[in-house]
Every structure is written in C-alpha cells, then in structure tokens.
Amino acid sequence: xTHTFTRKPPIIIAHRGASGYRPxxxxxxxxxxxxLGADYIEPDLVSTKDGILxxxxxxxxxxxxxxxxxxxFAHRQTTKIIDGESKTGWFTEDFTLMELxxxxxxxxxxxxxSQNTPYNGLWEIPTLQEIIDxxxxxxxxxxxxxxxxxxxxxxxxxxxxxxxxxxxxxATLAANGYQGANAPVFIQSFEVSNLQDLxxxxxxxxxxxxxxxxxxxxxxxxxxxxxxxDLATVSGLKDIAKYxxxxxxxxxLVIPRDRTGKLLSPTSLVRNAHAAGLQVHLWTFRNExxxxxxxxxxxxxxxxxxFLNLGxxxxxxxxxxxxxxxxxxxx
Length: 331
Ligand code: G3P
Ligand code: CA
Description:
By secondary structure, the chain is an alpha/beta fold.
C-alpha cells in the first residue's frame, strides 16, 4: 500500500456500523463492524430535545425507526425545513432521550438489504456515550484500539434551536479521555464554520467533508459564494488545511463517473490534498451493484483496489470485511 499521506495502511471506517449486515447506527451494527476488522466506527450525530447526542443519519427518523407505529407519538408528526429542504415526519429534537429509547431501529433500504430486515425492531437508538463505551469495551477485549469518527449533522440548524452539537460532543469526548492530535478520533462536518470553531477549541483531528455537488449549508446562510467544488481546488484545500487534518471526500470527486456510470480518469484531488498536508478518506464503499461503477459490477474488491492504489488514507465502508480483505491482499 503505497503513498498514503500517513505512510500507514489506509484506515477502515465502518460507515454507520457494518450497515450492509445490520440496520445502521445500532450498537449491533457497530459491534459487528469491529468484529469484522474496522479501525473506526462512524456515528452520525443529532440532538435530542434534552441535548443528548444520539446516532442517526437524519434528525427525521421515520426511515430508520418504528416511530410511525407508536400511536402515542402520532400527534408529533410535522413538517419542517431542514437545510432548505422540506421534510415531513418525526424529529429527534422534539423528543427526549427517554422517549426515543422506547423506539427500535429499522433497516433504511429493505428492498436492497433484505438480509437486515429480520433485525427490525430489535435494537435501540444508541447515544454517543453508549457507542464510546462499546468501542472501549471492544478495544480492551480484542487488544486493538477502535477509534470513533463522529459527524455533526445539520450543525447550523441545531445551533439555531439552542441545541448546538459541538459543546456536548467535545464534553463527551473529553469526559472519556479523548484528547490531543493522536487520539483515535476524527470529528467530521459537511459545514465549514463549525469545524473552524472546533479547531480553536480542540486538538482532536478534524475532517472537512466534500460532496460532489452543492455547497456547505453554512455558506448558504452566510451568502458565501463558494461551493464544494471550490473547496476541492488547490487553494481551497490549502484553506482547509488551516483548520482540519483530513478531507472526507465523495469518491466521485476522485474518480468521476460518466453518465452511464463508467469511471473516468482520476482527478488530482488526492495528490493536491496530500500536498496541502491533508489525509484523504473516501466515501462510501458498498458491495451492491446498485452503488458500484459499471466497471466493477459484481466486483466491489476491484473498486477498492483502484482507489487504494491512488494512495488514499481511509475508506468509509458499509461492508468492512470486504475492505479488510482487499487491504490484506494489497499489503
Ligand atoms: O460522513 C461522510 C460519509 O458518511 C458520507 O456521508 O451522508 O453517509 O453521512 P453520509
Ligand atoms: Ca456520515
């Protein structure tokens, strides 16, 4: 495995847990990911009404929980504008942790991941603290440090509600002994200003997420003209390096696809990010043909190999065992 920025083998980040095998963002998904060899587990974080951080990809939870079956919460279904988009359902910020703990997680894409549907209704929505406890317990059990890779979801929105994510995140990490640039933690955000603020408050590694379209929502609010494409330029990456240690990149920005889904030539993003002093972690690697480029249908291993040969420093994967197996055969 050559030319990573870290000079170490790429890290394997279990994307929302081993979410190819278990409903995402459950302790069972995270535990399986660790058992399958992941180095880091990734909780996306939103806030409850009482300010507790929990793992959900969205604050609207009808797609990944059984809340629609809870008659006692029916009257709390509502419509809100989240980051400029209208969403209808039930929102974590309208429920206390105690209320949310009465729900059970469900599979997000049952039509594609029917293997996960037998687990519907089994597991709670976990808190960040419970995820950290799991990582620490498993690290001690297996003798291998498991890192935490939390993402602040909709930070501008939660701040506007008086439920800012950053303070409880830093407090929870500090209370659990995570400190300094070498701690097994990466804090990520699709927004910029909350990472810049975090950089003033912590030495923990920070990750600027870059999508293949659009712009950070805090730039929408502040009328900043820059897009993710601007942030991914040589000068944009140099600016990111002033407050972050890594970029978490949509893999289409590294090897774009044509309209038919076939891969094109790699861009210079990995080289430019490394030159700016940034690690590069790519998302999201999944085994299903639906997500794979045409070039690698039925061959997710081939996709990993192509990207790993570019010297990337980490992969977000729904199937960490596949990532581990490819990494081992390339070492
Ligand atoms: O956090 C980066 C990666 O997880 C992709 O984003 O939408 O799955 O949270 P998302
Ligand atoms: Ca994420």
